[in-house]
Write a structure and sequence with these properties.
Blueprint lengths: L12 H16 L4 H9 L4 H13 L6 H14 L1 H17 L7 H6 L1 H17 L3 H15 L1 E3 L4 E2 L4 E2 L5 E3 L4 E2 L4 E2 L4 E3 L11 E2 L4 E2 L4 E3 L3 E2 L4 E2 L4 E2 L7 E5 L2 E6 L5 H4 L14
Length: 274
């Protein structure tokens, strides 16, 4: 029996697997040993590892790594939901990206994943009333990872930003749980309008590479947008939109595009919605 006031260890299978992978890689690839010990093997939790890695990537002479690390650690400490989202996101990448062979890989290498975790810290800062610092962090994330996410956007858990390059997510955009965004996706406005002006991407949807979804429109749950499309209309749930400008080209069953990552559009089931 534990003594009063002692802290019980929490089993974290994702973190345990990351540590095992890091130890094995350090053994077989000595060139990476210092990186692996600093980022993973000398850290106590996944949150600590992510804080260290992000602080190393985003620091500058004026904002040193130690200061950035303390800031990120404070966000994880004060809002446990950020850590929960971190785990959901890393699992999403592992399950959806066939190029990902271990949980360690997104943590170390995938800049779309890094940018999303950096956004979560900037969003926390904004919610604390620290707008200037949140915008600074957004700017650094954009410079380093080539992903520009406004800290006021609302993004759920289990989200994958694949590759990440040139993804833009506007101030009033909403991205719900289980969504996948490929490289070059823009969730933007349509002009100089103010207020609620960005898309709402509902759960389980997939937005293909270089697609632009513009304006305060809704991509329904478990829907799909074809690569290179320009979407200016609402897309019903469980449907596919493609083209310039995009049209609804079909709807089908209970498929989960955000998870399946299927980008071939061959609908013979129900056809275009009535």
């Amino acid at each position: 029996m534990s003594q009063p006031g002692t802290k019980l260890a929490v089993h974290d299978p994702v973190w345990s697997e990351i540590r095992e992978s890091a130890a094995l890689l350090a053994k077989h690839e000595p060139v990476l040993a210092s990186l692996l010990y600093a980022t993973v093997l000398n850290q106590s939790r996944l949150e600590d590892a992510m804080a260290y890695l992000l602080s190393q990537r985003l620091s500058t002479v004026e904002t040193p790594a130690l200061v950035m690390q303390q800031l990120i650690e404070a966000a994880y400490q004060n809002d446990p939901d950020i850590g929960a989202a971190l785990r959901s996101d890393i699992v999403a990448v592992y399950e959806r990206d066939p190029a990902c062979k271990a949980y360690l890989e997104p943590l170390l290498y995938f800049k779309g994943f890094h940018a999303l975790q950096g956004y979560r810290i900037a969003n926390w800062l904004l919610r604390q009333g620290r707008r200037g610092l949140a915008l600074y962090l957004q700017s650094r994330i954009s410079e380093v990872f080539a992903v520009d996410i406004n800290p006021a956007a609302r993004i759920g858990r289990g989200v994958m930003i694949d590759h990440g390059t040139a993804v833009v997510i506007g101030e009033t955009a909403v991205v719900e749980d289980g969504v996948s965004l490929l490289q070059g996706v823009t969730l933007g406005g349509t002009g100089k309008e103010t207020g609620d002006r960005h898309p709402k991407i509902r759960k389980g949807s997939m937005i293909g590479a270089n697609a632009a979804v513009l304006g305060n429109i809704e991509i329904g749950e478990y829907s799909r947008v074809g690569g290179g499309s320009v979407v200016l209309i609402n897309v019903p749930a469980h449907c596919t939109a493609a083209g310039v400008p995009a049209k609804i080209i079909g709807c089908a069953g209970n498929e989960n595009p955000g998870s399946a990552m299927e980008q071939k559009f061959d609908y013979s089931e129900e056809g275009e919605p009535q």
